[in-house]
# Entry
Amino acid sequence: MKLAIIGSGIAGIACSIRMAIKGHQVHVYESNSYPGGKLSEFYIEKYRFDAGPSLFTMPQYVEDLFSLAGKSTSDYFEYERLSTICEYFWEDGTTLTAYAEKKMLAAEIKRAFGIDGDVIYKILKDSQKKYDLCGKIFLENSLHKINTWTNLEALKGLMAGPRLDLFTNMNSVNTKLAKHPKLIQLLNRYATYNGSNPYQTPGIMSVIPHFEYNIGAFVPKQGMFSITSSLVQLAKDLGVNFYFNKKVEQISIKEKSVCGLIVDKTNIPYEAIISNMDVFNTYKKLIPGIKAPKRILSQKKSSSALIFYWGIKKTFPQLDVHNILFSNNYEKEFQSIEEGGVYEDPTVYINISKKYKQDDAPANCENWFVMINVPNNQSQSWDEMIKVIRRNTIEKINRILKTDIEKFITCEETLDPRSIELKTSSHLGALYGNSSDSKWAAFMRHSNFSQQLNNLYFCGGSVHPGGGIPLCLLSAKIVDDNFKIL
Ligand SMILES: Cc1cc2nc3c(=O)[nH]c(=O)nc-3n(C[C@H](O)[C@H](O)[C@H](O)COP(=O)(O)OP(=O)(O)OC[C@H]3O[C@@H](n4cnc5c(N)ncnc54)[C@H](O)[C@@H]3O)c2cc1C
# Structure
């Protein structure tokens, strides 16, 4: 059967592999000149930058694609586990190295905060318990199929309700478990992994550290973009055709079924379509005649990000791959984002891939990816805001690292919510589709298939089970599990 995929984001690529393995003829249409969507790369002079994601978790979902195809992962893609997950810095001079090894982490918590570091075992056990109780059911299955809910696993998940902290927020869970304000702040940070607010998102989100500490934080040896490039190579080896600079203009419909795509004003017939385009824009732009599920599409969207990509002509031994310079007032920072603005003392995340991939920057230089959490695009005066945020970010870096960073910036690019939407078609430039700030958020994501049109499927960060590389890869698996032509 001949089918088309709209978009070559990570979920679109994963779907193309899965569909090719099933024996289908697969065509992927991508409006950009390159694959990967948010998971892409670019160069400024001799500096290479991964454009979006910098943290790689759950590599087994990538491995699954190679093994399904009967290939050896290492022939295409190599990665390794980080022994240090993140370096944390506070303005009062406190620092903490988040070691992957739990005994070392416990000792480091004791050193940095002066509390019993063994508290981390309890915290990570709670996180794992939440995953064991409901992770599989909520992340690996369609929530829109009866058979998902009619087995023992589902019953276990539903019975576990009260233990999942659904009716309290993440900050309350962390406050109860961690006690020390800096450790609470560190754990609250995990809400940002799906663009939510720790003071609003339900306590179940304290499952996130389980992925990073119990399973691991990893780096692809050739940079994050090698996740995209290796999977595109696998797809091509399986016979998938990619068409770049080809923006899909419309999905063709006959009676109650999709029957093709319009590209360059020409109708190309297909028996099935998988949209990796943000679901909001799929309805709005590609099937405007179809009644959209308003309640789902009008949910609050996740936060976005402002990124400064800097070539730095200096090295900073106190920094590692992942670094966080914390705000003095985390609650105010999230309150500002809720109000559509950015707090004057923002938390600054610095990622330096040169720390593990030497050729990403010239000798004695580093490639800095400097990210600040910002609200999604509500037509703020971004140009003015970016000037202020840039100044505040530089001052924060200078205070904490005791430097004058501007002196060392040799080249620069910026990505903001407007350009994220422009480059990837993500509604409002939200990084993760719908926000996860409501306890019903999991049920308010669009399903992986259309309930109105036969043979139309959806994958990617804006639909179930959500954003982030691992969940996008799972969305492709759910499409695969439920794929049938009517
Ligand atoms: C700055 C940033 C940092 C992030 N950090 C992390 C992280 O550390 N770890 C992590 O796991 N995740 C992270 N994420 C989230 C992660 O990048 C995304 O969840 C994931 O990459 C989204 O993949 P996707 O499959 O939904 O497609 P997208 O990446 O959204 O790509 C969709 C593709 O579809 C194409 N397209 C859209 N409309 C059309 C059309 N009409 N015709 C043809 N093509 C079309 C677009 O051009 C694009 O290439 C981050 C995201 C950003 C932006």
